[in-house]
Amino acid sequence: MSIEALIITLVLSSAVLVWTLWPLLRRRRVNPHLAEYLKREEQLRVLYERVLTNVRDLDEDYNTGKITEDDYRQERALWVQRGVQVLKAMDILQAQIQAATPQTSEDADDEIEAAIARYKQGLRA
Q1: Which 3-state string (H, E, C) describes the chain?
Q2: How confident is the model at residue 30, as a pLDDT?
Q3: Residue 13 vs residues 9, 22, 25, 26: alpha-carbon distances, Å
Q4: By mean pLDDT, which of 16-20, 59-63, 84-88, 117-121 is the weakest?
Q5: Is the residue at 5 inside a domain?
Q6: For the segment 54-82, what is each residue's pLDDT rounded down to a tens digit?
Q7: Nearest 5°: CA angle at 123, between 108 and 103?
Q8: What mean pLDDT do residues 19-41 have?
Q9: How confident is residue 124, by pLDDT bands cut at 50, 70 and 90?
Q10: What is the pTM of this model?
């Protein structure tokens, strides 16, 4: 194999390797608040699923006669209230996530254009 073929093979192999690994190597900018919000959202979803499971189990226990009607009504009201609280917390968190989510490319383009216009006005002054 000639030296030229070896160099071309090495360059092409390097280019393919960089192109393949680029998505893994590049660092993404993640808003730390957004990551925390998403973690909290997942915790709330797990909690809500637990509430739903407990309500279903409670309904099943009542239907099979394992608990009295008074206990059933008290427990069910408690779990329903917890579910409502979790849903309210999820709504608040969703609003926070939307506020922390990066802007769309059109919004970013508008901001860039405005910054360029301000810069040009500063040069003229």
Answers
A1: CCHHHHHHHHHHHHHHHHHHHHHHHCCCCCCHHHHHHHHHHHHHHHHHHHHHHHHHHHHHHHHCCCCCHHHHHHHHHHHHHHHHHHHHHHHHHHHHHHHHCCCCHHHHHHHHHHHHHHHHHHHHC
A2: 57
A3: 6, 14, 17, 19
A4: 117-121
A5: no
A6: 999 999 999 999 999 999 999 999 999 99
A7: 5
A8: 75
A9: confident
A10: 0.56
Hunting for tokens 């092409």 — which residue is that?
A: 12
Token pair for residue 114?
A: 């405005």
Whether 17 is covered by a domain: the verdict is: no
End-to-end CA distance of the chain: 64
CB atoms within 10 A of CB 37: 20
Residue type, 74: Q
Residue 71 maps to a domain:
yes
Could you tell me how many residues make up the chain? 125
Q: How many domains does the chain have?
A: 1
Domain range spanning residue 107? 30-124
